[in-house]
Amino acid sequence: MNEPPPSLAGASLDSLAAPRSTMESVLAGYEAREAERLAGGHPNREGLAWIEGAFVPLAEARIPLMDQGFLRSDLTYDVPAVWDGRFFRLDDHLDRLDASCAKLRLRIPMARAELRETLVELVARSGIRDAYVELIVTRGLKFVREYESYENHLYLLVTPYVWTMPLRGQMRGGRAIVTRTVRRTPPGAMDPTVKNLQWGDFVRGWLEAMDRGSVYALLPDGDGNITEGGGYNIFAVKDGALTTPSRGVLEGVTRRTVLELAAAMGIPAALGFLPVEALYHADELFICTTAGGVMPITQLDGQPVAAGEVGPITRKLWEAYWAAHYDPKYSFAVDYG
Amino acid sequence: MNEPPPSLAGASLDSLAAPRSTMESVLAGYEAREAERLAGGHPNREGLAWIEGAFVPLAEARIPLMDQGFLRSDLTYDVPAVWDGRFFRLDDHLDRLDASCAKLRLRIPMARAELRETLVELVARSGIRDAYVELIVTRGLKFVREYESYENHLYLLVTPYVWTMPLRGQMRGGRAIVTRTVRRTPPGAMDPTVKNLQWGDFVRGWLEAMDRGSVYALLPDGDGNITEGGGYNIFAVKDGALTTPSRGVLEGVTRRTVLELAAAMGIPAALGFLPVEALYHADELFICTTAGGVMPITQLDGQPVAAGEVGPITRKLWEAYWAAHYDPKYSFAVDYG
Q1: ipTM for the complex shown
Q2: How close A72 gets to chain B, by Cα (Å)?
Q3: Using CB atoms, which residue from A69, A105, A184 is nearest to B70?
Q4: Which in A28, A264, B46, B284 has the greatest CB count within 10 A?
Q5: What is the pTM of this model?
């Protein structure tokens, strides 16, 4: 990593590998920035949207009732993030959005350069330095069968960073279940590589997780393999190597970052089938998404995962993941003016 | 039927069975009312919505961007219709909406009596005499995991009658395909008896239908059986008897009406597995939904269904279906004031 986090300025690469201090430094840096955001009087500190050419406070942002994105969930979306004032892998997210749109025969009604500028302006106007940024492209007001004759709709929004697992909670890891009441929608029905908001299976998973005193619902594919959860990919660590499902899942940008970091650190990693059974014998488990990063799972179906603590490989990847947010290869600074 | 359509007033039961005249009478009555609607100057003739206690023209109706009904398609809905000024099976639709809400742990934020009154007022204020009425209940502004702590959202809208198959086109029947690129989302992933707007599989089906020069996409279940299409159930007629899929489909109110009418007319009918193969050997096929009624399918995968014409049982059910809209057992008149 070219630029370590400011809180680690002057730290050696060895210190990057010292687990406690790094996890704690990232947390301390974030909490300090959050305190500043909450104490500051910025009018858009809770979020801002871009709708039909206008910037509007998030709480007032509205979309047409008749948008097919609502009436048929006929849409795709993507979520890049901003960390400590730097946009992370923005073009990778925009590339994936392009690919999702192509598969759904949607067209983003704005050229890439303008879209990029508008996103940066949206974030800058919000003043939010740790931000969750969402782009949604919907079919628009007309039915899919008329798709060639009209413009699709684009909605943009920024909110403070969204944590699938609270950052502080990541220090001890989360409780997950493998769902019994619901399987993941198979790729033959809906293509999970097209990022979509048709989360009926995940909603059932969350309800089951609540019923079973847990938080994270990991969905099987109906054929004995695990797939993913609501918005995140799953990794298992066994004998020092990573495995993550190759089929029936989103091609996550965070998953890709993890795989790139693992390669750089010499940790073997494979995409393939990940049997549910293997989760019960894993040395470490983690889930990952832009909305939360690398999130350790330390309890599965009521039992500890191995020793029930955040494992060493998860911790190394966790630290490398947040350090990567300062790497100019992956990120650039937003000018907040 | 207690009250035949006005255009058939004085007609004998025998004449109800005379196919041409009845199909033509329903069409003529509808087209006359449509001409009146379009010529009339009613300000809401293209539709009206009820949002947060206010009636607003449909084209101006907007919902919060942050509604989980949009951001996760975390919602259910139902669609009763009004035909020739009469609400059809309204309480059956509201009962099903209650059941869908219970399964998703949603609460309609309005008591049944007030909801009924509001719907009637919405239709009356629109002046639309042949109307598609939609009720949508969303999770609201907060994530499903917080479902016990807040109110869900309710949106109501009325538009002119929506035709899955144009009424005039029903005289000759529609062209359908069995999809090859997509299967129906299985009930183990999303419960199809909870009426939902997660139509990604149907959207894929429509795109395939367009690629193959067809209109209606019938989705298989991945195990050799047919399920349903976007918003409609499927019936096959063979040797004088009806079969419709029992599993992996919506429990349609129109399907139920068809089954009730078939029972009254002595036509045998069964719910069960309906193999895709059986469709190619059927004597008649039809699809059915509130947005279109009983819609004959006369071409499947480029080949005629039997003789390629609307069959006699489909025709009998079609006529009985529209006649039932005047039966006080099923419908009541809206007072348009």
Answers
A1: 0.92
A2: 5
A3: A69
A4: B284
A5: 0.93
